[in-house]
Design brief:
heterodimer, A: about 425 residues, alpha/beta, FAD/NAD(P)-binding domain, Immunoglobulin-like, 3 domains, seven-stranded mixed β-sheet, five-stranded parallel β-sheet, 7 helices, 29 strands, about 20% helix, about 35% strand, B: about 575 residues, alpha+beta, Histidine-containing Protein, Chain: A, D-Amino Acid Oxidase, Chain A, domain 2, 4 domains, eight-stranded mixed β-sheet, globular
Chain lengths: ~425, ~575
């Protein structure tokens, strides 16, 4: 590790790895920092396949997918430190000072540009207001995935899964393969949260029932979990009194949403979106603070690692360019309307390349036979016909925004 | 109240309630179908002039107390003789053990839970009270005021967080301010110093979160906060460092008394033969006193729930603050008719509601604690939380802090308080049994009072022992707990030097709270080691942050297993039955 870099990337999951790779390939002197003892991030524990369909046109497991970036990154000669935890980032005239806690001591390194690739964390039982006792046996899906796939420990015999997010579905299958009984997946919303292919491959193929508009309200057990209380929920997601049902089980697995991790971003004053809960960015993944870039699930929770990597490539390239020469940005807002819940990026820098911008959209509901419309000051820049639109699945759009006026409107018509 | 009047009143509550007098106490018996009736009867029977206390043996139909007992059943302590047996590893018991460790005594502390501070001592808000709201002749006032002054020193000696940021009661109207002026006037007579009536502007200097609708209030400078479970654990560790033996998972099941003396104490781990016994058994203090033939009081469980916010919401309070019990918030005012009678009714309802004590507390770790409510329940060990109660607490608190959102809440817990019907502490020498010393009915302000209670109890125990044996000072007694680095308190330079000497302090395991492997190992190598994931969480905060252990739990299980040479399947959450891992994968 040197004292000074062009670009420091924080996090060596899919976003960080591809950001470091692309920054290196674009000529920057790069350091990638990872708090765990090896690279890969959450991909390490995702031993199911389906990664890389968009990026490589083939189905890879998580570790295989990560390995491709890792080996390529090693070839570029980019510096990497593991078991290194960022304690502090502070801004100075010349760039940013990053303080790392490592087994060898505290280390301070300087950088011209910073890429935040800090990923996301899982929502917990308490954050979805589950009450009752506090026994062991209540875990988030990611924790269970870590237990089983990385440590080789079985934490469940008879499990109930709350939330039909992808990790929950994948863990339903994994637990079944490991000999546990999965009593059912319960979803508070009136539609499943995960990808359709996961509903089919993880639940239907294994005869695991999916219950919609039901949630877990209470955990019961003084030591290990003995049962959960399930209740129907109304349209406002509030439990309906009188619908209580007690289901004996020893494990409750939660797949109730992911929250972008931005404590570091917030500590350096990066502005966070109220919709995506990640930094507001332009099409180069640069945040509203010059020289700070962000990529992957810390910006907005994605459903495909391929998109996360694509983000990282964009951020890494732009960070390398920033380190070489700063340029003045002219940021125009992206406004989402009529059926579009959120869009990354939230800004378009008019002074950057506009010919091939990538937008990631999420609808606010499920729709059929609609059209996505990008327009600026009444001028239509792009339309795309959509047979189905699922709020659970990100819509990726490539667009030529050269004709942009003072703002960009994105809507579903 | 005259006895026949009382009988009439009790008949009104439930005709089946029987009254008798036993050993100077008033005893109630019978069976009711509503627990609130049993509580009401107990409250009605209080008569401190006529009786030593209320023995309320009224049962709730269909309810049987399920006491959680440790699974372990070895004979490890069988035949063990000791000078002092302390029953209860809460803050009072641990403080008493530490006091007595100043003498050359054979001390054994038994705790039925799997860790120190398994009951109220960990399940409370950590407020160090001023004492201003306790009556003049109460033990609560006496020990609260004295205990409050002891905390700065304890915090230094034991290296436990303590902050003296004051306590604030704020008011909405001029007449409420007048009432607070009266409270302030009585404060001095009660020995509570550093109180001041302040205008809204003056209060804002101490507490920027005073609601817009408050015109001022009472500032109490002696109010403070600590971390209750860390303090209790630190007291136990320091007692152990000075020679006391701490036995966890050890429950007292029965006692044998002879000629007014306890001779044998039967536990799940064998029979112990103590010279003196301290009863600091919390919610079971009356059960223990009964075993010893010294019961003059009844504990009636009263639960309270606190909600904990993310540290990011820590700005919502910088002190401990709450409205006066007779203050109606603007929201409440909107709901009631605008006439004096309705208002007085609403105020009275407010004062007797279970949420009158709800406030905001800035905790030592930077989170805000919201709560607690107060509800009478039959079960002494039901610490489950309830959706409606939590929602209610949020609603009440949003009137004080409108910025509060449900998404700010990262955790919540319920504690069971142990009040007597007299609503005062029972801190005394045994009345019917000479070698028992009672520290019972210790609920709020029990945390504040505990060091002072422990000092008195220890003094009485020593005086008693001096009549039967030679008691010498412990010349090697060191009131300072052995130092363990807390990395968040160090400068980067200090931290760097420490890591270069001990690399484990450089490896961060808990990312939300920034806790290193070195700090976890220190906790595992402490004088009172507890090898569970909850114990690590309470000692060093791994898993207390916003991810609630989602990321670090597997690693912590691994570290405990490595350190103890156990298999990961053997590492439990808390009690021996709270398994995490069943077996290895296929």
């Amino acid at each position: 590790m040197k004292d000074k870099y062009d670009v420091i990337v924080i996090g060596a999951g899919p976003a960080g790895l591809s950001a470091a790779l692309s920054a290196s390939q674009n000529g920057a002197d790069v350091l990638i920092v990872e708090r765990e003892n090896e690279p890969g991030g959450i991909l390490k524990q995702c031993i199911h396949d389906g990664f890389g369909l968009h990026r490589y046109g083939e189905k890879l497991t998580g570790p295989e997918y990560a390995y491709r970036d890792i080996t390529q990154l090693e070839e570029t000669g980019c510096d990497a430190v593991y078991s290194a935890f960022v304690l502090d980032v502070s801004g100075h005239d010349e760039g940013w000072q990053v303080t790392l806690s490592m087994r060898s001591g505290l280390h301070t390194v300087w950088t011209k540009a910073l890429v935040l690739a800090t990923g996301c964390r899982e929502r917990t039982a308490r954050q979805v207001f589950i009450h009752g006792d506090r026994p062991s046996g209540v875990y988030t899906a990611g924790t269970v995935q870590n237990f089983i796939n990385l440590k080789g420990w079985m934490p469940a015999k008879k499990a109930v899964i709350l939330g039909s997010g992808d990790i929950g579905l994948i863990m339903a299958r994994r637990l079944t393969l490991e000999g546990a009984e999965v009593l059912g997946v319960y979803e508070a919303k009136n539609r499943p949260g995960g990808l359709m292919r996961n509903i089919a491959q993880c639940l239907e193929d294994f005869n695991i029932p999916l219950y919609l508009s039901k949630t877990v309200t209470r955990t019961i057990g003084k030591h290990r979990l003995e049962a959960v209380e399930i209740m129907d929920v109304d349209d406002n997601m509030e439990p309906v009194p009188g619908t209580e049902q007690i289901i004996p089980c020893d494990t409750l697995i939660l797949s109730v949403g992911l929250i972008p991790e931005n404590e570091l971003a917030e500590s350096i004053g990066v502005r966070i979106s109220g919709q995506t809960h990640g930094p507001l960015v332009d099409q180069n993944m640069e945040t509203l603070k010059d020289g700070i870039f962000a990529a992957g699930n810390c910006v907005s929770v994605n459903d495909l690692a391929d998109y996360v990597s694509e983000n990282g490539i964009t951020a890494g390239k732009a960070a390398a360019s920033y380190a070489g020469q700063k340029h003045e940005r002219e940021l125009l807002p992206v406004k989402t309307q009529d059926g579009i819940g959120s869009c990354v990026p939230q800004y378009i820098d008019k002074n950057s390349d506009l010919s091939n911008a990538v937008l990631y959209l999420r609808s606010d509901d499920d729709y059929r036979d609609r059209e996505i419309l990008l327009e600026s000051e009444g001028k239509v820049l792009l339309t795309k016909k959509m047979k189905t639109v699922h709020s659970a699945e990100i819509i990726r759009l490539e667009a030529d925004l050269s004709g942009i006026g003072s703002e960009l409107k994105v809507k579903l018509i | 109240m005259k006895p026949d009047q009382l009988r009439k009143q009790l008949r009104k509550i439930d005709p089946g309630i029987r009254v008798s007098e036993v050993n100077g106490c008033i005893r109630l018996e019978g069976e009711v179908d509503d627990w609130q009736k049993a509580v009401k009867a107990g409250q009605a029977a209080v008569d401190r002039k006529r009786y030593l206390g209320v023995l309320n043996d009224i049962r709730l139909r269909g309810f049987e107390q399920k006491t959680i007992l440790p699974e372990i059943n070895d004979r490890y302590y069988d035949g063990r003789h000791c000078d002092v047996l302390i029953i209860g590893g809460g803050i009072t018991g641990c403080a008493a053990a530490r006091e007595l460790a100043g003498y050359q005594l054979d001390l054994l502390l038994v705790e039925k839970g799997p860790d120190i501070a398994s009951g109220q001592s960990s399940r409370n808000g950590g407020v160090l009270h001023t004492g201003v709201n306790f009556s003049k002749d109460s033990l609560k006032l006496k020990y609260c005021v004295r205990g409050n002054t002891m905390y700065r020193r304890l915090s230094d000696d034991l290296h436990v967080p303590y902050e003296n940021k004051g306590q604030i009661t704020f008011a909405r109207t001029k007449w409420e301010m007048a009432a607070l002026r009266y409270v302030q006037h009585t404060a001095l007579q009660k020995g509570v110093v550093r109180t001041k009536i302040m205008t809204r502007e003056e209060l804002l200097k101490y507490e920027p979160s005073i609601p817009d609708w408050s015109i001022g209030g009472l500032y109490m400078g002696t109010g403070g906060i600590t971390c209750p479970h860390k303090m209790t654990i630190a007291l136990a560790e320091n007692a152990a460092e000075n020679g006391a033996e701490i036995a966890l998972n050890t429950a007292v099941l029965s006692m044998k008394t002879e000629n007014g003396l306890i001779t044998e104490v039967v536990t799940n781990r064998g029979t112990i033969y103590p010279k003196a016994v301290i009863n600091a058994a919390g919610v079971y203090a009356d059960v223990i006193a009964d075993m010893a033939g010294d019961r003059t009081f009844t504990i009636h469980p009263r639960i309270g729930t606190d909600l904990i916010t993310d540290k990011k919401a820590g700005w919502m309070a910088s002190s401990s603050l709450g409205k006066t019990p007779f203050t109606l918030s603007p929201e409440q005012l909107e709901e009631i008719p605008d006439d004096p009678v309705s208002r007085v009714k609403a105020i009275l309802k407010n004062m007797h509601s279970h949420s009158k004590g709800i406030g905001l507390i800035h905790a030592v770790d930077g989170n805000v604690l919201i709560g607690p409510n107060a509800d009478e329940v039959p079960d002494r060990e039901d610490t489950s939380t309830d959706r409606e109660i939590s929602e209610h607490i949020i609603r009440v608190q949003q009137e004080v802090q409108p910025a509060l959102r449900r998404s700010d809440i990262i955790a919540y817990f319920t504690g069971v308080r142990s009040p007597t019907y007299e609503e005062d502490f029972v801190v005394r020498k045994g009345i019917f049994t000479k070698n028992i010393f009672e520290a019972a009915g210790i609920q709020s302000p029990g945390l504040t009072a505990a060091p002072a209670i422990a000092a008195d109890i220890a003094m009485w125990v020593r005086e008693y022992l001096e009549t039967i044996m030679d008691v010498k000072k412990n010349p090697s007694f060191d009131p300072k707990r052995k130092y363990k680095p807390v990395l968040s308190e160090l400068t980067f330079q200090e931290r760097d030097e420490l890591i270069r000497e001990h690399p484990d302090y450089g490896e961060i395991v808990c990312r939300c709270e920034c806790i290193s492997k070195g700090e976890i190992l220190d906790a595992l190598r402490s004088p009172v080691p507890v090898y569970t994931t909850d114990a690590i969480k309470r000692r060093v905060r791994c898993g207390m942050g916003r991810c609630q252990g989602g990321f670090c739990l597997p690693r912590i299980i691994e570290i405990i297993a490595e350190e103890t040479g156990k298999q990961p399947e053997e590492i439990v959450k808390s009690s021996s039955e709270s398994t995490h891992i069943f077996h290895k994968t296929k």
